[in-house]
Amino acid sequence: MIKEKVNTSLTFEDFKTEVLNDYRIAIVSRECSLLGRKEVLTGKAKFGIFGDGKEVPQLAMAKCFKNGDFRSGYYRDQTFMMAIGELTIEQFFAGLYGNTDIDLEPMSAGRQMGGHFVTHSLNEDGSWKNLTQQKNSSADISPTAGQMPRLLGLAQASKIYRNVPGIPNSDQFSVNGNEIAWGTIGNASTSEGLFFETINAAGVLQVPMVMSVWDDEYGISVHARHQTTKESISEILKGYQRDENSNGFEILKVKGWDYVDLIATYEKAAEIARENHVPVLIHVDQLTQPQGHSSSGSHERYKNAARLAWEKDFDCIRQMKLWMIAINIASPEEIEAIDLEVKKEVFEGKKAAWNAFIGPIVEEQNELVAILERIAVTSDKKEEILRNAATLKSIKSPLKKEIMVVARKTLRLIINEEDKLELSSWITNYIKKTQPKFSSNLFSQSDKNVFSVKEVLPQYPSDATEDTDGRMILRDNFDAIFSKYPETLIFGEDAGNIGDVNQGLEGMQEKYGELRVADVGIREATILGQGIGMALRGLRPIAEIQYLDYLLYAIQIMSDDLATLQYRTVGRQKAPLIIRTRGHRLEGIWHSGSPMGMIINAIRGIHVLVPRNMTQAAGFYNALLECDEPALVIECLNGYRLKEKAPLNYGEFKTPIGVVETLRKGTDITLVSYGSTLRLVEQAAKELFEVGIDCEIIDLQSLLPFDINQDVVKSIAKTNRLLVIDEDLPGGASAYILQQIVEQQDAYNHLDSKPQTLTAKAHRPAYGTDGDYFSKPSAEDIYEKVYEMMHEVNPSKFPSLY
């Protein structure tokens, strides 16, 4: 028996109006799901994954979702987005069709499949909107549980805003830290490690997070008994339940078809999280999935008759109807009238969305047909061109691809004819107009991108007599950063109390507090997630991963979430997170890796900076804090105790991003490298000079972006030879570097010898000094490789060593 819980401040008529409005939203969402599946089956849409069966609990969540709050959810939350006023019928179908117009399809302009939602945090110029005056959704991703790490950071931002004074423009992002981060996930995806890592971290941090688990008893076709111990996520998480003696979660459970109890449950959860910054988990069970997992199959294949009958009876919308009738909210006839009205509304909205999508493409189709028919008149290939035109004209619902295929194949036919200019010009202009709709915004296009920051050189005292450890330069520069930017904070394993494992943050926690310089648990994925979420809310976090090898734990979050954020929102959200790590040469398989090839290919959309010393690294941090883009900074692990000159202008000097530095001028060969290996390159170059080989050494400084001024090819034009030295595996970053130099910079025009690489061995580095020597390039390896290349040029002057 459902107990009625009614807000006593409402009259019955007000209450009735609110309930009927909720029901209407639920029916709109359900009809969109049903009609959306049909659009996939007819071929108008490519794939569909819908939120049917989850409508009523999402209505309850929406009622408690306030301006300033953030959602980090998954791809079945369409009802919620409709209920907060951020998704219309037309936008739902525009997403399904993949409309590339951001005004018509504001979720991703067709870059993500339907069901992936977002709100715009940025104006068109990349500046922040006032996030406290709107309801916010971070941009969804498909990888299961991938939304969880970001959720942690979105919640932690409220804690920072509530407890850290002096943050500039904080009223644009928070009202005293009262905002809740709302997470949603399917029951099966709670099996992912990212879910458990996030739940544990939220319990430790005590942040205002409300986590909803939509439980329909299946994960695609796999029953909960194969997914979750005891078949219940709330049961196995009972150990997280807070009590009077310890922090933890508040864990609530509610049936997904019980409208009244759902509202009461969400109101309770919101009050706990918003006021007390206590995380809450709501296990919403007894939900259904009326059309199965997606449009790729039917759930009749894996659900028995009893389950299917139960799902029909306990469909949340059906139960809501029965309750409405039972307490005289509406009669069956009134409900049926709403249903019929909504069916028509959704159908008309679908039709409008389709016309808006297909109309411009048909205009392009007609434009090309006219060109083809015109050039056919005087062409020797008249019949073939007219056949192509007729084929294109016959397509009722053309795709841009189909238009381009006809245009480009026709161009081949008239390659020797004068009239080809009209067609080739049309194709060129079409690509210029269309390609950005699919390719723009991988990196920031605002006036705060990395190229907007100008180099500022370190200034040194004229009477300096001693150099200092590199780690001291980092420490003093971080001190200047934290003082200059109250919105900055850093966190990582051992980053707080001991000032990181290399003391680059020595004394910073004591000076700036545990919230701004924080220790965290051993959980790299959610360290990244903390950074993403806080950066989405206007803070400037620096997420520290202790060693470069450990980045692999977080690479999926970096690749699927952070790296794609500006791209998949077409520049409407940003998370300018700085990721700090240290790597390259040390000892052993898991502390000395340089998996740069994997990294640079997995995280396009994040800048990858590889300073050779700590002054460079500090300059990168200073530059990045004036930008609105994410970046990975890899400090040299064996450079913290090496001596460097101490600058005077901490916090102000800036290392240019994407600009190489020539460390040594030479005439015989160009040696290109980065990071720790450069010290060996410089040593080898000195020894080579003694035998008459003059090497030019170039420090790349950054891999993404790569040599924006094309200085490497200028060097090769002088030396006519190239060797890339890299401690990544063969074919790793060195292959990328060669592609950039030889192909992108056209260095092949200047080469007199085969461009070559010298890399680490294909295995992981072995332990110890000898392991390093025989696993990665040594000074002797570099010497002999260069000497061998010069032997080929002049064997009499440089006789073979072996």
Describe this structure in words.
This protein folds into 4 domains: 43-88 and 142-330, Thiamin diphosphate (ThDP)-binding fold, Pyr/PP domains (Rossmann fold); 358-437; 468-644, Rossmann fold (3-Layer(aba) Sandwich); 662-793, Rossmann fold (3-Layer(aba) Sandwich). It has 27 helices and 22 strands. A 7-stranded mixed beta sheet has the order 11-10-12-13-15-14-20, with helices on both faces. Helix 8 links the parallel strand 7 (250-255) and strand 8. The protein is globular.
Structural class: alpha/beta
State the CATH superfamily name of the largest domain.
Thiamin diphosphate (ThDP)-binding fold, Pyr/PP domains
Total count of helical runs of at least 4 residues: 27
Oligomer: single chain
The overall strand count is 22
Q: Alpha-carbon distance between the termini? A: 90 Å
* CA radius of gyration: 30 Å
CATH fold call of the largest domain: Rossmann fold
Overall mean pLDDT: 95
User: In which order are the strands of the major sheet placed?
Assistant: 11-10-12-13-15-14-20
The first-level CATH class of the largest domain is given as Alpha Beta
Q: What general form does the structure show?
A: globular
Strand content: 5-15%
- CATH-level-2 architecture of the largest domain: 3-Layer(aba) Sandwich
Whole-number tally of structural domains? 4
